[in-house]
Write a structure and sequence with these properties.
By secondary structure, this protein is of the alpha+beta class. It is built from five helices and five strands; from the N terminus they run ββαβββαααα. The protein starts with a strand and ends in a 7-residue tail after the last helix. It binds FE2/S2 (inorganic) cluster (2 copies).
């Protein structure tokens, strides 16, 4: 079975896996990183979003071989030294979740969005999160959390 070296949340990890297995499966089943969620398995919901070299990807459709030698960040890797990342804190402060199933994907995609557009317009927020589905329909609060994070008014890492 092929072996891959992947840097996951800042740590180099050795993975033994079939090349075509979805990265999501490897993260959840082999490495115990269950923050990325299985929603549809077809690229339609983005609950499985993780960052690959800083870019959001649907890990359910990404074969593990494409992550070899690269950097992956999951929701578990976003906080630092016991402090929530400012995007996580903004989601908490806006109560931007109900069941929370979509939340890791929303937060990681927001993180990437704010790196590309530190002061996003409403249109950029909608475009950035377009395709991340929330079955609880908490979109207004999610958008408010993105705006709060962009303004830097959350109380993260005080
Ligand atoms: S589980 Fe990956 S897009 Fe739905
Ligand atoms: S909070 Fe339930 S799916 Fe979004």
């Amino acid at each position: 079975m092929p072996k891959y070296e992947i840097t996951i949340n800042g740590r180099s990890q050795r993975v033994d896996s079939d090349a075509e297995r979805p990265l999501l499966e490897v993260l959840r089943e082999d490495l115990g990183l269950t923050g990325a969620k299985y929603g549809c398995g077809e690229g339609q919901c983005r609950a499985c979003t993780v960052l690959l070299e800083g870019k959001p990807i649907t890990s359910c459709l990404t074969p593990v071989r494409l992550a070899a030698g690269r950097k992956v960040v999951t929701i578990e890797g976003l906080s630092e030294n016991g402090h929530l990342h400012e995007v996580q804190q903004a989601f908490v402060e806006e109560a931007a979740m109900q069941c929370g199933y979509c939340t890791p994907g929303m937060i990681l995609r927001t993180t990437a969005l704010l790196q590309a557009h530190p002061n996003p317009t409403d249109a950029q927020i909608l475009e950035g999160l377009n395709g991340n589905l929330c079955r609880c329909c908490g979109y207004n609060r999610i958008e408010a959390a993105v705006r709060r994070a962009a303004k830097g008014t959350s109380h993260a890492r005080a």
